[in-house]
Design a protein that fits this description.
Length: 136
């Protein structure tokens, strides 16, 4: 349960970081380009916050390189949602990314846990089972 709470806290910080970056970039580029760049930058921050705080494990190059794979699902779900909300529902491009992000939260938790704590089935109560000597 602690991991889920910490994941929620990190998610809140990460979402705020993403949204501030998105709003800063939005005036300078098309909304989808601003969304994509803000997503990548926030994902890097998310990796370190989730590694150290949520799952309390060491970052490694392997985890860092695999972590974007967990976010591909998140990105696809959010991108499809963003496109649908803006193009089909006519939602404001400044609000739509937040709405789309809510749907992806459960997927992100399960996938990031599997990457950051290898050997787990994704259940929040399982202990960390492996450590790598290589760190970021």
């Amino acid at each position: 349960m602690g991991q889920i709470i910490r994941f929620g806290l990190v998610g809140g910080v990460n979402t705020a970081t993403f949204f501030v970056l998105y709003l800063a970039l939005h005036p300078w580029m098309p909304y989808f380009a601003a969304y994509s760049l803000a997503f990548v930058l926030a994902m890097i921050g998310s990796f370190f916050m989730n590694t150290y705080f949520t799952y309390r494990t060491r970052p490694t190059w392997k985890k860092f390189l695999l972590f974007p794979l967990t976010n591909i699902t998140n990105y696809v779900i959010q991108s499809a949602g963003l496109y649908a909300l803006v193009s089909w529902a006519g939602m404001n491009t400044k609000i739509a990314p937040l709405v789309a992000a809510v749907v992806a939260i459960p997927f992100t938790f399960v996938l990031s846990r599997k990457i950051l704590i290898p050997g787990t089935s994704g259940a929040a109560g399982e202990p960390e089972q492996t450590h790598s000597a290589s760190t970021v």
